[in-house]
Design goal:
12 helices; 17% strand; 335 residues; alpha/beta; elongated
């Protein structure tokens, strides 16, 4: 088996230079880096990850906490992006299972026992103790859709308010004036800023706000289904429903169909995320595209920067969005 010395000789550089390339130091020229990596490939050299961890007091492992089921299409696409970013990073991903409702659970102790170098957290509210503890412990952490910031913690989210504002403009231009809003927990930055986009849209287009047009439920199909059942019971039901996730929108459309309503002839429905299911369902779902795979990749890239550069200030990353118009929206019917 080739050694680091063999690689250095083959590449015509020092052992120190090879070590810097392996550990992603920035003070190595791109030409030298390519030469060393080519020698590593030819000689099939495998760095001793355990030894690197002992020297640098790192495990080359990133932990992830997900407060959402893996079957959620958003989560699966997020994981795809994360895995892509990890392929050439030298880091492995460790899925930590947390008891989110146990007051005695310590996420810091859990991370320490697994010796992770940093954390990605998704689905935890801003006020949840898990997020607060990670920020206070100053373990490098990136949150997805939770606006927590610390000396070693940042977050990434989409341009949520603008996304919903685009939806409101689309529906208004179609002729809708009675627009409902279905969302998950508003304590997440995604829920809160999407609600702000809804409110801003009402103001900009001179539409009145009705509290009974706002339904807060779980971010899933069942939540959307129940919310739509409530909206359909109103004496003056809405002609359009804006949902803050695609899966909730599917639940809304199912409830409308089961009640004998046609989408979009009787009621228009809009989702958010543009997950794979949005183009598969019938009718095709009008939705807001946030590049979830890109979010997954960027959250890993930023976390690794925090891990490897202790003095770097954490960043807040905002992903662009785009309205995707499909068949679930149309002009309202005037009886």
């Amino acid at each position: 088996m080739a050694s680091i010395t063999d690689v250095a000789k083959h590449a015509g550089v020092s052992v120190t230079t090879v070590s810097k390339v392996i550990n992603n130091y920035s003070d190595v020229s791109e030409k030298t880096r390519k030469k060393v990596n080519e020698s590593i490939r030819i000689l099939r050299y495998e760095p001793n990850v355990v030894a690197r961890g002992l020297v640098k007091k790192r495990s080359w492992t990133i932990g992830i906490l997900l407060h959402n089921i893996m079957t959620n299409p958003f989560v699966s696409e997020l994981m795809t992006g994360m895995q892509k970013a990890l392929e050439t990073s030298g880091y492995d991903l460790l899925h930590l299972t947390a008891d989110f409702n146990n007051p005695d659970y310590s996420v810091v102790r859990h991370c320490s026992s697994r010796n992770v170098d940093g954390m990605v957290v998704f689905g935890v509210g801003k006020d949840h103790q898990i997020g607060v503890d990670l920020v206070e412990a100053e373990l490098p952490t990136m949150f997805v859709d939770t606006d927590l910031i610390g000396r070693r913690a940042g977050y990434i989210t989409a341009d949520n308010q603008n996304g919903i504002l685009q939806v409101m403009k689309h529906l208004y231009e179609l002729g809708h004036r009675k627009i409902a809003f279905v969302s998950g927990y508003l304590g997440y930055v995604a829920g809160r800023t999407r609600f702000e986009g809804y409110q801003q849209g009402l103001r900009e287009f001179g539409l009145e706000y009705y509290s009974n047009y706002v339904e807060i439920c779980n971010f899933d199909i069942e939540g959307g289904y129940g919310a739509m059942q409530n909206l359909l019971k109103l004496p003056d039901r809405p002609t359009a429903v804006v949902c803050t996730s695609d899966v909730m929108a599917i639940g809304v459309m199912n409830a409308a169909a089961d009640a004998g309503f046609n989408v979009p002839a009787d009621i228009s429905v809009v989702g958010f995320d543009n997950t794979a299911i949005a183009s598969i369902v019938k009718p095709g779902l009008t939705t807001v595209n946030q590049n979830i795979v890109s979010i997954g990749s960027k959250v890993i890239q930023q976390l690794i920067e925090l891990i490897e550069n202790p003095e770097q200030s954490p960043r807040v990353l905002v992903e662009d969005v785009e309205l995707i118009v499909r068949q679930s929206t149309a002009a309202p019917r005037h009886d």
